[in-house]
Structure formats: C-alpha cells, structure tokens
Amino acid sequence: MTTAPRYNFPPGSEVSLLHRPMVVTGTTDVGYSMVCLEDGVETVVTFARLVEYLKLPGARIDAAPTATSDRPNLRLGGYTSVEALPNSQQRAQARFHAAMCEATDIYVALQQEKDAAYKASGRALNKDHARAFIAQQMTLLLGESVRTNPLRGGGKTTGWILYKGRTIMDYYNRFKALQEDEGISGVGSEGGGVREALAPLWHDRGNRKPRLCPRLRELMTEAWERIGLDTKKPGVSNVLDLLQTLIHQENEVRTLNDLPELIVPAAKSLARHRDMLLTPTELMIATEGMRETKRKRGRGSTDVRALMIGELCGMDEQKFSMVAAAKLKGFWHTLSQDEKDAYEAADKYIRKRLHILILVDVASRMPLAWIIAENPNAEATLALLRMATRDKTREERRYGCMNEAARGCGIHFLRNDNGTGLRNVPVIKALMGMGTINGITRTYSPKDRAHDERLFGTLESRFFKVMAGYTGRRPGDIPGYDAIKNGVVDVELLYGMLTRYLVDEYPFERNYGVGMGGRRPRDVYDAINAARGQVRMSDPNTRRIHLGWEASTTPTDDGVRVFEGIWFNSDRLQHARETNRFKGKVKVFVDPDDLKFATVLMPGEPDPIEVHLQMTVFADMTLGEVLQLMAEYRREEPEVTEIYHDCLMAVKMRRFEDISSIGVEHELPRSYTTVEECKAMAKVVFAGARMARSRTLAGTTAPDAITSLGKDATAFKIGAGATVIDGVANAEPAAPFDDPGSHSAETGSEERLASPVDTDNAAAPAGKAPAVQKPAKLARPTNIKELK
Question: Are residues 288 and 387 in the same domain?
C-alpha cells in the first residue's frame, strides 16, 4: 500500500520540476495547482506525482517567505547565512557576538537566582567579576581564548578581547529583543538566526559610487576593444598609451566647448575596467584563442566510465544498537586458532551496552527515524534528524520490509530532555537553522515526554527482552543471565530486525494512548495525511547546510572535491567563480545519506550553490558505503604486498639492465658524466680565469678628460673657433707624454699641448715628401673662464 504525502505549500511557493520553474497557487483534492513561469500554463500535479518529481535531478522547493523568515537576508543585504559573508573576520565576529550574548545570558540567569531583583545594565556588566565570568564562558563556547584586558607591555594579543559593559549590554539587548520577537531562544519559526542578527555589516562599508565618468569608461572600453583584446596579448601599458591619445582628442573637443578635461586613469583602474568587461575565461579566449582556452580552462570529466559487476555493491555501516561480537558472520571460520583465541580475549573488552535513538510523531505515533549509536552524541542526533527528514526507501529495500515507513517531512516543533547527546551546540544550531522550535523539557519529568518514553518501553518489552545479550532494565535485574557472554548477535542483523519491527510490526499494533483510541498508528498516519497534511519539507540546501557533513575545500575547474575523492560540480559554481574571481576555500555540505547533490557556500555569493555528483558510480550509495568501498579497494594482505613489491622491483631491475646492455652492444656514446669527470672539467674551466684591466695608452687622453678643467687636465678647447683643427700628423713618433700627475700647473702646462701644424705652406713638390715641422709649444691660457 502506497501513501502519497501531502505537503503544505503556501501560495506563492516556487517549485522547479523537470527544470521548469513553477509557482504553487493552491491545493485541490487531487494535487497541487501550479502555474509555469515560462509560458503561464496552469497545471495540476497530483500528490503522488510530486513525490516522484522531487526525487529527480533539478527538483527544488523555495517556499514563500513569511514576515519573519527573511529577516537575516534583509539585514545582511541578501546573504542567506553568516557563512556566506565575504569577510572571514566578519564571520568570526558574528560567532564572537553570539557567544558573548549566550555567556551574558548565563551570567544574568545565575545572578537572578541569587537575587530576583537583579537587572542587567552596562555598569553591572562592566564589573571585573562579571566580565571575567563572561570571558570564561566565552572561552568554553568559542574554543578560543577570550581575555578581559590586553597583555601588559604591548605587543599583539592572541585571542579575543572582551568589550566593556556598555557594549556588552547593547548586544545583549538586541539578543533579548530577538528572543521576545520570535518567541524562543534566538530563532524564529522560519529560521532566523542569532549570528545573522549580531553580525557586523562590514560588507556595506565604503563608497559605492563610481569615480570615473561614463565618457571616460567608454574610451577605456574602446581602447581595450581596439588593441587590448588581441591574440598578440598586449599589456595594460600598451592599452594605456592608446587611451592617452583618445583622451587627448576628446579633451581638445571638450576644451572648445568649455567642458572640464578628462584625466588619464591609472593602469590599475584600466585593468579593473577590463575585469568588469570580461571574465577570466572570456579574456583568455580573446588573447589566447579558443583552443588554448579549452586546454587550460576546459571542464574535465571525473566520472567513472567503466561499470563492472559488483561495482555498485551496497554495504550499510551504521552505529551499533546492541552488543557486537568479533564473531562476525562469515568470517569466524576463516580465522586460525590463535586468531580465534585473541578475538575471544578481546571480546571481553569490545562488548558493551549501546544506545538507540528514536524520533517519533506524537500525532500518529509513527516512528520517523531510528539510529543505533555507541554513545549518545551530537553526530548520532544529527543522523537521526537526517533520517526523519528524508525518504527511507533504502532501508525498506535493504532489509526486506513488507510495508512503507513514514515519509520524510519537516519538523516544526521538537522537544527533548537535557541529555548531552540531544541538547548540545551542534544540534541546537541545526534546529535553529532548519526553522525548528526546540523545546527543552524538565529533567526527571517523564510526563513532559510521555509519548516518547512509551515507545521505548514497548520496544524494550517486546523486542529487546527476547534478544540474546539482553542486559535488563536496571543493574541486577537478571542476575542469572550473562549478557556479555551471550552478546553474539551481529549488528547488521540486529539493525535489520529493528527496522522490520518499526516498519512492519509496531505501526500495525493497536495503540491505546491518549488520542489514539485503540487505532493503529498506520491508520492514524493515513487519516491525518489525507485531512490536514504534513509540515512541508525543508529546502534541500538548507537541510544539507544544517544537518549534513561539512567540508572545506578549494574549488577548481573540475568542481569541489570532498572526502578525498568525491567530486561535485555545476555550471552555477563555475559561473560564481568567474564573476566573483574567488580564490580560497569554500564550505561544502553533503548529505551522507544522499550523495547525488551537495551545497556550496562561497564567501561573497549571497545564495547557496547546488552542485551535482560527478562520479555516478556513487549515485546510489551513502557516504559511509563509499568510504568503506574505498577502504576495501586499498586493503591488502601484508604478504601479498611484499610479493608484489619484490616482483615489481625485479621487473624494474631487469628493465634497467636491458637498457645498459643495449648501449654496450651497440657501442652507443655515453650521455652522462660521472661526479669525478664533472669536478675535473670544472677545474679546467675555472683555472687561471681573470679579467684584464684596460689602461690609457701613453701620449693619449681618456675620453672623459678631454674637457676637464682640473689642474691635471691634459686637453682643452682653445678659442671660439671651429672645434676641428686641420693639421698633418708627425711622421716621426712623438715622445710619450709624461704622467700628467707628475707635472704641476706652473711648469708642465707648456709641454702638455702641441700647436697644430700650419697647413697654408704645407704644399710640397710632387714626388717629395712634405717637410716635417716641429710642433710649437703653447702656453696655458691665463683666463680659463673666458674659454667656456
């Protein structure tokens, strides 16, 4: 018998079915009335068909926001969660403020227990003992050091510094006002959060007005289009040169029209304008071409294409509900006697009492989820919430159930006791994010949760009491029975029996509780579902964010890789990387029971990003099964590993020997050198190597001393005539000049310069060499300043 759940969708809720965006306009007797946003066609989707549609890829539910559900988005400027804010310090500050308000609330409650007239104020919270208590509690809540005052002697303080009393009171008043408005501790019925209300709005700081006029941006765009987007890959400086000419032409026209001139922007502004026009991939296409862009930025495939027999095996890895023994079914006979003796000795320490967590619907008494845990903790409770809000077809098929379990639905109000596994920070955070009202009942008051306790009593009396390894209701209840010795039930078998009991037996037994009247829970469930429906399911992204497993990874062109080998990707993720130019790590949230989709929170991206599983080999497996499968792939016997290693080394050695023999047989020249040969060649290369220093030849003047007017100058410009002096070189070699430094300014100045040869009478008869005249000596000029 199949029952189609009927979800309460308020009018205006957006639903995407088969990649078609639709809006719910109402509910009829047979289904939901919806209008397509693309073509405006109104259709009716039956209750059963909607359940099947929601299982398909691309299905999405976006319920219409209420008066209080969209407060975090409005305050944060469109960001869904604090984790999506672009500034990491801003996110840390939000956690700091939330912890400070929680610690202050604890302090105020303790003071009111001592004095009922106590009232919190800035002055009261500024006292040393109050601030010290708040800082101590914040250290426990945050897991980071919180100090009341900075360290003495200067220097940078590690950790947080607590605010003064007035600032603490300001945030605490905002915290209390949120509680009064929403009716519970810090969260509304639609998911408003404390951290979102206390987060600083740093992302709204700064001047958002453009500083460059539109005409200048048009010229910048023209410069980039003319030469910037070229396969020659010109630089920003080249584009800036062209932009200067364009601005100069524009300023000539603007000057004639009495308009202010445009300024030339900086190269950084020009590069930012290019980044506004094009994404990195588009720029690479323009500068490097399509082929190179596909090679560098192409979206590769990470799917396993070769499917084989046994590749899609299922293995359930759940927490134990009772005592587990080392004698696992199918393995005990394969062990040696020594191994059996070792396991028998270890059984005394392995066997212990385990716990069962169950979430039941009070209206129909139908169990919504059941988890077997080694110890009640936050992880087990979150797994319980995930099971309650999802479909349980996997368990039905795996354990051979004859009927259907309760379908997944949302949780509007959840009550629990003060147990450490149920009331802890991760669970309360998850419930707040899911929009669930978390009701804490009194300690040692079973009447506050009679329906929950009754189910445990029935389960123990009718199921566990007849199982091998039953320990009794209390210590010493069955003194003649050794529960540890008889705890040999396989955990997998126990969980399968428990699932069949809660699906096939318990819902069809008469229940005489208040409001049941002897009816069977399954009949009550069907009647309520047909008459009043169920609480709508949460958005898949919201559910994964608050109930899923979190991983931090760096996105690449292939998507995000989590848990060392599971890939997720989507077009929207890649588009967000392109438009935001994001570099860093993102938060990835995965439902361990359904790996087909995951949610990514990228700093700077307001909305969650849904990514799809790329390795379809894992599509029908849970995360525990995937990790167990990978462990089985890598597991190997030590003896086999040693054999493989020896064979591998032998084959490699033979290959290198074959390579060496080929060179010897064919007398190939050696392509390598030894260490001794390298050292010998290095000595030859560097032996006796030195640089010869150049010096000025005797009788000449250095080029940089021709016009020098110092006392050791050897050449001067004389007169105002032409610089070129006609003359004939002496046939006989002139005597070398003395060292200029050895002559004084008074005695050696006449000998330093020689007069030019008189060329007026230099003509000689043909066939005869011209007479050589001795150069005349000129005196040093008396007034050097006139020669300049």
Answer: no
